[in-house]
Amino acid sequence: MTEIARVGVCGAGLMGSGIAQTAATAGFEVVLMEVDAAALQRGTASMAAALDKAVAKQRMTQTERDAVLGRIAATTDVKDLKNCDIVIEAIVENVAIKTALFKQLDDLLAAHAVICTNTSSLCVIELAAATKRPDRVAGLHFFNPVPVMKLVEVVRTIATTPETIDRLFAFAQKLGKEPIHAKDTPGFVVNRLLVPYLLYAIRVYEDGLASKEDIDKGMKLGCGYPMGPFELLDFVGLDTTYFIAQIMFDEFKDPMMAPPTLLKRMVLAGRYGRKNGKGFYDYA
Ligand code: 3HC
Question: Which strands form 137-142's sheet, in the order they lie side by side?
């Protein structure tokens, strides 16, 4: 079994930059690839800012912070991923764009390399089928904020081999994460349970059960959740939740997964949550 030493990450958004930062902090050499130079710059700046905070809180020395950033090579050229033992894709949730990238990676990478997707809801096997190595393709699903959340879902398709899953479990543990097994079905384990809960919170709010503030307070103080459902919806993104819910409803035809009327209208109004300043709450 070839050791994973060099990690590639595609996409420098919230998830991609979080994964790159986590891998570099764990001591891996990282290549962070993003086609959009401005997005790459934003991702690099957000990793630096997160590490600066860790230094300010004396959780890391300045030398360690510099070493972590020094292990991340940022690039806009996919060919720079060539020597990676694993590549984790965290780009836009669009099957056609992801499939094209998987084909490119398959042609570029060494035979032993594993290709993973951080998709939260798309079919992993559809991406694997675009490659000549479906046995070495899996889902590796991280949670936001990646450097903080301990869980990683290791998603096996009907083609992923047990050896690949073993390698990914060992890799996730080296990242300091706790891996769990999940099947290649929309939402995997966590979103399969979390998304219906978030959608139901919107439904009871629509029904006038309580104010969103009181629903949030109830779930935080009554259940010990770090965020209430509306705070979490804004944190995850209403557009993202809507997208996942649509895919889950399409697959399972379970009414619990159907996007509520209000969610659709908020997305149509461009209220995506924290990412653009307005969701259920105002961040301006
Ligand atoms: N990057 C790095 N570190 C971060 C961070 C970030 N974006 N955000 C917070 N942190 C760190 C802080 O620096 C702090 O570190 P410290 O303990 O060393 O001081 C620690 O996390 C706690 O942060 P804060 O004190 O600022 O704030 P909170 O105590 O309120 O915690 C939170 C913030 C960790 C986001 C907490 O509110 C939480 O756990 N919320 C729930 C998050 C959640 O459910 N995520 C999963 C979403 S679902 C998903 O991702 C799946 C996808 O497919 C949709």
Answer: 72-75, 29-33, 6-10, 86-89, 114-117, 137-142, 151-156, 178-183
Distance CA 7, CA 113 (A): 10
Say yes or no: domain 191-273 is CATH 1.10.1240.10: no
Catalytic residue status for 17 = no
Residue pLDDT, tens place only, 107-138: 999 999 999 999 999 999 999 999 999 999 99
178 is an active site residue:
no
Residues 49 and 195: their CA atoms lie apart, in Å, by 30
pLDDT at residue 44 above 90? Answer: yes
> Domain residue spans in the chain?
6-183, 191-273
Q: Which CATH class is domain 6-183?
A: alpha beta
- Cβ–ligand 1 contact at 150 (below 6 Å): no
The answer, yes or no, to whether any atom of ligand 1 lies below 6 A from the CB of 53, is: yes
Answer yes or no: 181 catalytic: no
The mean pLDDT value for 182-191 works out to 98
pTM above 0.85, yes or no: yes
* Pocket flag, ligand 1, residue 262 (CB < 6 Å): no
